[in-house]
Design goal:
mainly beta; 7-stranded antiparallel beta sheet
Length: 206
């Protein structure tokens, strides 16, 4: 896609080097309904701005089309995906995150993806992960880098929503029946800086 020209200012307080917290200090679980839950660990990844800059510059970002309104339309964000052990590998920090998360949650996170929200017009509509939403239980982990953006969840089919505002390095993990009984979204924002969401998924039985 060529060079991305995005306006982004890293924090002057961010620690040099990238480190993750294998002890998950400060992690808090929120029980939802129907066996769904969300874990949140603020600042789980230190040096998040450094990792953001390297991913922004070094990822082969691409757009894709999604089925919406009975037709395929361009998705308003850029993405890239890796499968651990198959083809090119993601950066070492993402592989370490996958390993630590796998140890914590008892599943093998073998699918790593990154989503780039360039500004407030980039978004993702209400959804549950396509395969995971057909399973009784699944775990999806997200690490946020760059500018904070609202992340919202609501019961599948509608209802009152709850929200998070993950900052740089924050970890969110959706588990239990969350992909099946709840939906999540990153809504459009009037003004927002660029954000990268790193996603970790485990292999699903077919």
């Amino acid at each position: 896609m060529g060079t991305l020209d995005l306006s982004w200012q890293p924090s002057l307080l961010d620690a040099p080097g990238v480190e993750i917290d294998p002890a998950f200090h400060g992690l808090r679980r929120r029980e939802l309904t129907e066996g769904a839950w969300v874990d949140h660990a603020a600042g789980w990844c230190r040096g998040a701005d450094e990792l953001f800059a390297r991913l922004l510059a070094g990822t082969p970002w691409a757009g894709r089309e999604v089925w919406m309104y009975e037709r395929y339309v361009p998705e308003p964000r850029l993405t890239h995906r890796w499968r651990l052990g198959h083809g090119p590998e993601p950066p070492s920090e993402l592989r370490e995150m996958a390993h630590v998360l796998s140890e914590r949650y008892g599943v093998a996170f073998t699918q790593v993806g990154v989503n780039l929200y360039r500004d407030g017009t980039d978004s993702v509509a209400w959804h549950g992960d396509r395969v995971a939403r057909e399973l009784p239980e699944a775990v999806v982990a997200l690490v946020s880098l760059g500018a904070p953006r609202p992340f919202r969840l609501r019961p599948t089919g509608g209802g009152a929503s709850i929200g998070y505002l993950p900052g740089p390095g924050d970890l969110l993990v959706m588990g239990g029946s969350c992909q099946r009984t709840w939906q999540h979204a990153v809504p459009k924002a009037r003004s927002a800086g660029p954000r990268i969401s790193i996603q970790f998924r485990h292999a699903y039985p077919r």
